[in-house]
Design goal:
The complex is a heterodimer of chains A (113) and B (111).
Chain A (H helix, E strand, L loop, with lengths): L3 E4 L2 E4 L5 E7 L5 E8 L3 E10 L2 E4 L6 E3 L9 E3 L8 E8 L8 E2 L3 E5 L1
Chain B lengths: L2 E3 L4 E5 L4 E3 L2 E3 L5 E7 L6 E5 L10 E5 L4 E6 L8 E11 L2 E6 L3 E6 L1
Parallel strand pairs in B: 2-11
Antiparallel strand pairs in B: 1-4, 3-8, 5-6, 5-9, 7-8, 9-10, 9-11
Classes of the chains: A mainly beta (113), B mainly beta (111).
């Protein structure tokens, strides 16, 4: 029972490079989201998706792109990495509905130099 | 707009002392409130949610709509309670659910 799987766990990028953070869930959840966690700022929503083919921006979407071609996968793309994107990134999934529990991946620690 | 405020970045208590982690929210409708916990080297996980009205690991949280608060309480802190705690609000926004997290409070239980 894998739950929410994120890859990679750690990544170092040079400024200007692009990369994709992978997120997959095996719980058939409709709702998936990406957060970044920064000291003193908590978890901030980057992008979210309520189902395959439907995505929307969260609180801090600039510099990131997402797509949702399948229910299981929700990759996050950094278009041109900047030092300000150094953070820990979490993917989460849940059933739709305000009462549902969110399940989180183990996080990706990204450093942009 | 929905907002969650956790005023304390760090809360240090001695083992056996009572714990209260504060959470205040702003939302015009009726939100659902959650507490999530992140132990060292582990992923975030749900601790409890308001609708369940349950006590998990000795923790309880009461929704006070008048004060728009959802404080997390435990009568006697244990060392294993040391972790990062996040309060979260889930509500409908533009037809979809939106979950907003607070900035988190690190609980340090001193032996």
């Amino acid at each position: 029972n894998a739950g929410v799987t994120q890859t990679p766990k750690f990544q170092v990028l040079k400024t200007g490079q692009s990369m994709t953070l992978q997120c997959a869930q095996d719980m058939n959840h409709e709702y998936m989201s990406w957060y970044r966690q920064d000291p003193g700022m908590g978890l901030r929503l980057i992008h979210y998706s309520v189902g395959a083919g439907i995505t929307d921006q969260g609180e801090v979407p600039n510099g990131y792109n997402v797509s949702r071609s399948t229910t299981e996968d929700f990759p996050l793309r950094l278009l041109s990495a900047a030092p300000s994107q150094t953070s820990v990134y979490f993917c989460a999934s849940s059933y739709t509905g305000v009462y549902t529990e969110a399940f989180f991946g183990q996080g990706t620690r990204l450093t942009v130099v | 707009a929905q907002r969650v405020t956790q005023p304390e970045k760090l809360l240090s208590v001695f083992k056996g002392a009572p714990v209260e982690l504060k959470c205040n929210y702003s939302y015009s409708g009726s939100p659902e409130l959650f507490w999530y916990v992140q132990y060292s080297r582990q992923r975030l996980q749900l601790l409890l949610r308001h609708i369940s009205r349950e006590s998990i690991k000795g923790f309880t949280a009461d929704l006070n709509k008048g004060e728009t608060s959802f404080h997390l309480k435990k009568p006697f802190a244990q060392e294993e309670d040391s972790a990062m705690y996040y309060c979260a609000l889930s509500a409908n926004s533009g037809g979809y659910q939106k979950v907003t997290f607070g900035t988190g409070t690190k609980l340090q239980v001193i032996p």
